[in-house]
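Revision sheet: structure tokens.
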Amino acid sequence: MRTILIVGAGQAGLQLALGLQSHGYDVTVMTDRPADAIRDGRVMSSQCMFDAALRTERALGLDLWAGEAPQIEGIGVTVLGPDGARAIDWVGRLDGSAQSVDQRLKMSTWLETFAARGGRVEVRQATVADLDRLAPAYDLVLVAVGKGELASLFERDTDRSPFDRPQRALAAAYVDGLGPRPGHDIPVVGFNLVPEAGEFFVLPALTAAGPCDVLLWEALPGGPADVFGGVTEPDEVLRGIVDLMRTFVPGEYERTLNGIEVTDAGSTLVGRITPVVRRPVGELPGGGAVLGVADVVVTNDPITGQGSNSAAKCAAVYLDAILAHGGRPFDRGFMQAAFDRFWQDARAVTEWTNAMLDPAPEYVANVIAVAGRLPAVADRFANGFNDPGDWERWLLDPDKAAAYLASVSAQD
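Predicted:
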């Protein structure tokens, strides 16, 4: 029986661990927190998982909340004018529903499921020295922790990493009491573009206590919405988010007027993320090698909502690669090849996400405007969140975008 060590108990690490376990591999998961601490801790993300990523969970019987989580059926795009009025406002329909499940609920449940099925869970803060000592006892070691000391094992890929600092200041809150979104009849991810300030997202979600909504500000660093430095208390974070809603997205602010509150004491998160791509093979001091997983090697800003989606797809790619490798050694060539397969999807995500962090070029602004009167364009835009590779086929190139709009207009 082949032995695998996975360091990290997030979306990718646990999905991969449970997948390998189901195929008879001897898997150990090392995590810095037990399941109850994850469940009772602070939120880890503002995730929205689209159909393609959810299918990788369903294939392993891990989509456990489909009957409880709100089913998201579209992407609502709003561009705010200088006076806060909605200059553009439309919804594109998704071909398959998306959903958002609080990762505290998901990861604690998955970790308990893994242990209940006989998997070994070691609770400790892993160090490079730990991995150097433990690696010889395993056929393969995977690192699925993108922060802290272990990230230093993976060299920054300068050719694929155009940023050396965070491009947005983030503030998220899970809330109860938010009113319905006016003007649209399906549950959507609300994507509000606020010139000179950043972006504001609203999406329905599921947390341990039941359905809720997630509010997320992506503020331009140093801009008027970058106000959360040093703010940590949940009520203060929520107050800051609502104040910005009142100022910049008054239509969304109206949904708070009956009173909203945080779902629990750990339901807010603030921070900044530097987008980066790292080389996938980490070299240990003793000469061993480890394979980086998901956001350890490809970290994107949350502006396109792809973090958990990319993690799920990485887990699926690595699972297939490990199973196909059979009894051969998991050498550096295997590690690089497994990452290269993941990069086929992750490259499109990275290019699209990085493009979204820059001011929209005029032709993209035109596409967003045209989508308001051509539902086919709005729907294709929405489904790009499920299939990021499609952006390269039309939106990321001005000539392709113009040709596509002309073809749709001709059919209208």
